[in-house]
């Protein structure tokens, strides 16, 4: 049981380049999330999805887009990368209901130069 | 709105010392409470949880009790090891049903360093 898998694990982009981060989960979770983690800032929610074909904005959505075409996959896109998007990105998934925890991936470390 | 406040870090202890990391919360309704741990270079892992008042969550020697009267969920361990060095996050989740997705609200994290 792989849980939540993120690819790639590391990436260096030049300013203005685009890329897509892939998140895949094999737990049949309905909900999926993308977070960024910066030093001293904790975790901030970028976008989330409550089901296949649905997405919604989180706290810091500007500069990012997402898609959930299949229940098991949640893609995060950067159309024109900026140095401010240098961060560690985490994907997570969960079932509905307050008693269920989130399962996190191991992260993607992105550097924009 | 919902919020979680953790004690400020970093916390530095010697091996075998007693650990307490304070966590208090503000929430509408009756949330579930969680502690996550993040080891260097890794993602967050669930450490323990409690879903109702007076529940005690425990795992790997760590414990936390859901105290509704003091709105707290303090993390404790009787004897820490060097391998416990990590960042610890307290979090709550409240799900109202319907269109609510039950956002997980995190505290700011507490860095723990344990020296031999």
Condensed summary:
The complex is a heterodimer of chains A (113) and B (116). With 113 residues, chain A is mostly beta strands. Chain A is built from no helices and 11 strands.
Quaternary structure state of the chains depicted: heterodimer
Tally of DSSP helical segments of chain A:
0
Through-space gap between termini of chain A: 36 Å
Strand content of chain B: over 45%
User: Structural class of the helices, strands and pairings of chain A?
Assistant: mainly beta
Mean pLDDT of chain B: 92
Q: From the alpha carbons, calculate the radius of gyration of chain B and give it in angstroms.
A: 14 Å
> What structural category arises from helix and sheet content of chain B?
mainly beta
Provide an overview of this structure:
The complex is a heterodimer of chains A (113) and B (116). Chain A has 113 residues and is mostly beta strands. Helix content of chain A is 0%, strand content 51%. Chain A is built from no helices and 11 strands. In chain A, the strands form 2 sheets. In chain A, strands 2, 4, 5, 6, 9, 10 and 11 form a 7-stranded mixed β-sheet that branches. A 4-stranded antiparallel β-sheet of chain A has the order 1-3-8-7, with no helix packed on it. In chain A, strand 4 and strand 5 form a beta hairpin. With 116 residues, chain B is mainly beta. In chain B, strands 2, 5, 6, 10, 11 and 12 form a 6-stranded mixed β-sheet that branches. Chain B has a 4-stranded antiparallel β-sheet with strand order 3-9-8-7, with no helix packed on it. In chain B, strand 7 and strand 8 form a beta hairpin. At the A-B interface, strand 5, strand 9 and strand 10 of A face strand 5 and strand 6 of B.
């Amino acid at each position: 049981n792989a849980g939540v898998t993120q690819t790639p694990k590391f990436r260096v982009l030049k300013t203005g380049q685009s890329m897509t981060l892939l998140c895949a989960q094999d737990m049949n979770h309905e909900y999926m999330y993308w977070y960024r983690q910066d030093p001293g800032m904790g975790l901030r929610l970028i976008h989330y999805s409550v089901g296949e074909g649905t997405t919604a904005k989180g706290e810091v959505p500007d500069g990012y887009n997402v898609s959930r075409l299949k229940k098991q996959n949640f893609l995060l896109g950067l159309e024109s990368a900026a140095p401010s998007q240098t961060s560690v990105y985490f994907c997570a998934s969960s079932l509905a209901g307050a008693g269920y925890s989130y399962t996190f991936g191991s992260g993607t470390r992105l550097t924009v130069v | 709105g919902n919020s979680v406040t953790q004690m400020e870090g970093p916390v530095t202890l010697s091996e075998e010392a007693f650990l307490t990391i304070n966590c208090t919360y503000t929430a509408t309704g009756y949330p579930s409470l969680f502690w996550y741990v993040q080891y260097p270079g890794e993602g967050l892992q669930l450490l323990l949880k409690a879903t109702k008042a007076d529940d005690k969550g425990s795992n790997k020697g760590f414990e936390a009790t859901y105290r509704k009267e003091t709105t707290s969920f303090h993390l404790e361990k009787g004897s820490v090891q060097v391998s416990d060095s990590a960042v610890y996050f307290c979090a709550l989740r409240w799900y109202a049903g319907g269109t609510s997705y039950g956002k997980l609200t995190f505290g700011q994290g507490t860095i723990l360093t344990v020296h031999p």
